[in-house]
Specification:
alpha/beta, three-stranded mixed sheet, about 25% strand, about 190 residues, 12 strands
Length: about 190
């Protein structure tokens, strides 16, 4: 899983990224395309919490994260950029959040959803376990999705196979975002 996007790379801004030391090719691709990419100082390890060093999500001026589990470079970025900290208990924060807009996201974690609502976010909480991931009991909404433009949210799978398909599509539409299914699987 060290190559899963939500564990291997962290977008800090539209132009700046942090990557784990194992991601040399990814770092080179990011730089080749005119963006900035920097390695974190810590070593990624296969077990929690050393596997979630980049697992946070920045939505507008807010950062959702567990400050005890992320890289020191993320903590420094938060301080340097005066981000509003939405601290949560789960270290797999990015795995659990699919940003829809600067004021809305989808999650399968009730505690993260509650924290987001406390900070004024519109939140759709879906059932945990409805996303399939080979070799695991289930996958996560944040790991299975990604914004590909301001008005498009890509899903690695077919959104119509998800039990909360209608809720997800309607929530996205409410925020002027279209769901794009990338393939026909879960």
């Amino acid at each position: 899983i060290q190559n899963h996007a939500d564990l291997a790379v962290c977008p800090l801004t539209e132009r700046d990224f942090l990557v784990t030391k194992e991601q040399h090719k990814l770092r080179d691709i990011i730089i080749k395309n005119g963006y900035n990419a920097e390695f974190i100082d810590e070593n990624l390890k296969p077990d929690y919490p050393c596997d979630v060093l980049l697992n946070c999500v920045i939505i507008g001026k807010h950062i959702f994260y567990n400050p005890k589990t992320v890289s020191s470079k993320i903590r420094n970025f938060v301080k340097e950029n005066d981000l509003i900290e939405v601290t949560v208990r789960p270290g797999y924060t990015k795995c659990s959040i699919a940003p829809v807009s600067v004021d809305a996201f989808i999650t399968d974690d009730i505690s993260i959803g509650s924290r987001g609502a406390e900070f004024g976010f519109d939140v759709l909480v879906i059932n945990k376990g409805d996303i399939k991931l080979k070799k695991f009991d289930y996958g996560f909404i944040g790991g299975a999705t990604g914004k590909i433009s301001e008005d498009k949210l890509a899903v690695n799978g077919n959104i119509k196979l998800h039990k909360s398909c209608d809720e997800i599509i309607n929530f996205a539409k409410k925020h002027l975002v279209e769901i794009i299914s990338l393939n026909n699987g879960y």
